[in-house]
Amino acid sequence: MIFEKLEGLPQDRSLKAQPSLVRRWKELLADYTNEALHQNFLNACREQDALEYARVQYKDLKRLQGHDEIADRMLHRISAISEVAQTTVLAQSAPEPLSRWELSRRVLIFLPYLVGIGLVIWGASRMGQRNMIGAGIAVLLLSYGLLPEARQLTIQFLKPKRKSS
Fold it and tell me: 83, 114, 137, 158: which has the fewest Cβ within 10 Å?
């Protein structure tokens, strides 16, 4: 039988299949036409994040048997499960937009840095106003030193007021 050839294949250690999945695969091979066993095997692989193991097993089986309708169907299901899992991960990882309060807080915190950089550039570009370089560096250093305090102040001033009822 073709499954005897499958048992002789070398085991790929990089797949890291759990013993329960290996046992389910052997049970599936014993009753290959049982659709419920295939579905249970795929569900177990999905739960244990081992869909690659299922994909490799079905590809090996298809390679040995040639054209196998069940293996083709299962490979399509594995692809569909993988795509659904990827889209849910992408949907969950989408960052939520900043609120007006958070955006204005960030602008107020980093505005002194922009002023300091502007003063340095202005002083470097004009021969008669070289003192602006020192003023810009002073603004930058003060901004860096007062950054924790500036964060607290912006939190106090920009915090949305709650209406008391």
Answer: 83
Nearest-CA neighbor of 42 among 6, 16, 4, 81? 81
If you ran DSSP here, which 8-state letter would residue 162 be given?
P
Q: How high is the pLDDT of residue 89?
A: 61
pLDDT in tens, 102-136: 888 788 888 889 999 999 999 999 989 999 999 99
> What is the SS3 assignment for 143?
helix
- Give exposure, 52-75, as e/b (b: 16+ Cβ within 10 Å): ebbbebbeebbeebeebebbeebb
Count the Cβ atoms, other than its own, within 10 Å of residue 163.
5
Strand, helix or coil for residue 18? coil
Q: Could you give the CA distance from residue 79 to residue 53 in angstroms, rounded to a whole number?
A: 13
The answer to whether 69 touches 58, Cβ cutoff 8 Å, is: no
The answer to whether residues 112 and 143 touch, using CB atoms and an 8 Å cutoff, is yes
Q: Positive or negative CA dihedral for 131, 133, 135, 138?
A: negative
Residue 24: Cβ-neighbour burial (10 angstroms; 0-12, 13-18, 19+): buried
CA angle 74, 79, 83 (to 5 degrees): 145
